[in-house]
Amino acid sequence: MTLRRDLPPGDSTKPRAAVSPSRLAFLRLATRSVRARSRDRSVSTDIALYPVTSLSSAPSSTIRLKSTTIIPTMPATVAQILAPCADNPELVERIASRTVEPSITILEPNPEWPQRFEEVKERIQKALGAFILEIAHTGSTSVPGLPAKDIIDVDLTLKDVTDEASYVKPLEAAGFRFILREPAWHQHRFFVENWPKAYHVNLHVWGSDSPEAARHLIFRDWLRKTPADLELYAKVKREAAEQTAVAGDSMMDYTQRKDNTIHEILGRAFRDLGYIE
Q1: Residue 187: how many other CB atoms lie within 10 Å
Q2: Mind telling me which InterPro entries this protein's record contains (predicted)?
């Protein structure tokens, strides 16, 4: 399968006239920054890198991007959102480890999850203020009606994620533990909740141009509006958790058992957005 990054004849650096204002508004929202894949086996991931080859079973088919143009205010291009990212575990820099490992147990939707996110969001806002571009609730607890592990996933987008002096100590003072630095993976930084007896929080920090952050929001918003895929994903999550428990495997093994379904669902979301045909 070939990924076409060249534009069809007549395309330019402007958005297509056929794209409605409402669609452009949705694209801007969906692609503003935000659960990330990590080599830390204690990190659960709803979104893994998107392999183009999973979009179709026909090896000779061609996927043509409808546009590789940057839509105004959109931090990542369509091509960047679709492109795979090289995975090099040797470049992961471990800063610390979790003090408590979260359980790989799928719970029924908890009405407290949205409020927990708001509490975390408020703490981050007080800690970082004007450095923040976006704070988003992502992962399964952000989707109403979706069973999930009891972990609040948060994507924090900053003006400059490499400027650790501006945010690491304030976040640590606010109760977060700095776990990983991944310069080769969209400059990802990973923190967890570090308060005794608190609920689990995965805090992912990104720069303004992170395509992974955009994928998180696209996946979340698609599940929120697509009951069939929400039910499919819920079924796969329960099966993956059960298989992982029986085998005595890790959180990363649980995540990998969901990958094919995640890629399948993302394919439908990308088509709905007009990213692929």
Answers
A1: 17
A2: GrpB/CoaE, NT_sf
